[in-house]
Each structure stands twice: as structure tokens, then as C-alpha cells.
Amino acid sequence: MTRRSFLKNSFWLILLGIGAYPLYEFVVSKRIHPPIKVHIHKHLLPGQYIGYPKFYLFETKNGPIAVSRRCTHLGCTVNYEPNLKMFICPCHQSRFMWDGKYISGPANGKNLAKFPVKVLKNNEGYVVFVPRGA
Q1: Cα radius of gyration (the chain)
Q2: Which residue among 15, 24, 48, 111 is buried most deeply as judged by most CB within 10 Å?
Q3: Do the beta carbons of residue 86 and residue 96 sit within 8 Å?
Q4: Separation CA 67–CA 112 (nearest Å)
Q5: Does domain 36-130 sit in CATH 2.102.10.10?
Q6: What is the pLDDT of residues 70-115, one digit of tens each?
């Protein structure tokens, strides 16, 4: 093998390695992060709710519902208005029912996200699973 052919082959191997590294990082080292568990040590009666920075937890006769506070339009934090029983986005005035269903505004028919909720044994509280980045 001549020095010229060695350098030529080395160049292509280096170029291939530089191109393959981002693909390797994307496919192999991509990790799925588990959701954040929020423990709530309080039992709610049907019709009651409790607010947290990322969600509101409502207790209904059919079980608990955790509704995201992130607006589906541009990601603003929506506020819950208890006397209207709806969420209102302070930025662009999108409106959602208490259970996250879209009513009006620029969110274009997208409901607020709901998070999984687990009821603890003996009704001692709840665990809400909030996805990372939500």
C-alpha cells in the first residue's frame, strides 16, 4: 500500500466517522426519561380541586382528572377561574372547560393535555405522572 492510497482511504474513513457520529448519538444514546411523579397527600371529595404549577387535579364522581396548565396555542400557563369553571389563557384568551376541552380562542380546537393519575390505597391521596417538558 502506498502512502497516497493510505491517506486517500484514511480521508474517507474519517469523513464517514464524522457523518456517522451524529446518527449514532441520535439512535443509540437517545434515552427515554420517565415522567415526574407528583405525590399529593390529600383526599379530595367529588367537586373539589387543587392547583399545582403544571396541572390542576379535579376529583369527579368518575375519578380524578389531572389537566395540564400549558395552553395548546403557544404554551402559556393558563389560569383556572373557579366561578366560571374554565381555564383562560392570559396571553391570547383561549378558553377551555374545567376538564380541558377547548371552547374558543386561537388554540384551534386542541384540548389541554391530561396527565395519568393513580389513587393511593385507602384514599390517602394521589400520584400524578407529569411528562418531562410538559
Answers
A1: 24
A2: 111
A3: yes
A4: 7
A5: yes
A6: 988 888 889 989 898 899 988 888 899 998 899 888 888 889 999 9
Helix (H, G, I), strand (E, B) or coil at 7: helix
How far are the Cα atoms of 1, 3, 20, 22, 51 from residue 11, in angstroms, in the given order? 15, 12, 14, 18, 59
Q: Which residue's C-alpha cell is 407528583?
A: 38
Positive or negative, the CA dihedral 29, 30, 31, 36 is positive
> Residue 42's CB: how many other CB atoms inside 10 A?
10
For Cα atoms 85, 115, 101, give the angle at the middle one, nearest 5 degrees. 35
The verdict on pTM exceeding 0.85 is no
